[in-house]
Amino acid sequence: MGTFEVVRGLHILAVIAWMAGMLFLPRLYAYDAEQADKAEPLRSEMRGLLRTWQQRLLKIIINPAMTLAWVFGVWMIAIHVYGFGEGWGFLAQPWMIAKLAGVVGLSWWHGFLARELRLIHADASVRTGKFWRMTNEIPFLIAIVMVLSVTTQWTFGRPGA
User: Fold this and answer.
1) What is the dihedral of CA 89, 11, 115, 37, to 10 degrees?
2) Is the pLDDT of residue 161 over 60?
3) Residue extents of the structural domains in the chain
4) C-alpha dihedral (34, 38, 40, 44), degrees to nearest 10
5) Tens digits of per-residue pLDDT, 113-148?
């Protein structure tokens, strides 16, 4: 087992943790938004609990997992370029462009969720529970494209070409 396989395995584990957090956090936001209709003191108690979970999920799981996913991803690129001698050209392959576009999309979504956390905790968010439920699967849809592009290495309709 070489360095690349270990780094790839660690990258996959980091991405799993990152995705799990980004799939769960919007659900917590939905529950938080739906507390507006509840009577006190239940509303304050539930929001306090939900906001603690939101903060911990972002700071303890999602942020470190994203950082590790990026570190291991860049490390794999370096191995491809310098260790395998492929040069930088492999980054221009359609499957890799799709993967990198997905990384940018997931990173943007991560930033959006972090910004919304600050707004929610300041009671300044305008998002509804319905919004969070409707957008909850965005990271998973992006991940589908990323995983299939990497595993098949498709090139404009010619898998493996």
Assistant:
1) 130
2) no
3) 3-152
4) -20
5) 999 999 999 999 999 999 999 999 999 999 999 999
pTM: 0.90
DSSP class of 35: G
Contact 22, 65 (CB under 8 A): no
Collapsing DSSP to helix, strand or coil, 124 comes out as coil
Q: Count CB-CB contacts under 10 A for residue 160.
A: 8
Inter-residue contact 87 to 81 (CB < 8 Å): yes
CA gap 99, 149 in Å, rounded: 7
The closest of 56, 66, 77, 60 to 14, measured between CA atoms, is 66
Q: Does residue 33 sit in helix, strand or coil? A: helix
First-to-last CA distance in the chain? Answer: 27
Find the radius of gyration of the CA atoms of the chain. Answer: 19
Strand partners, 158: 155
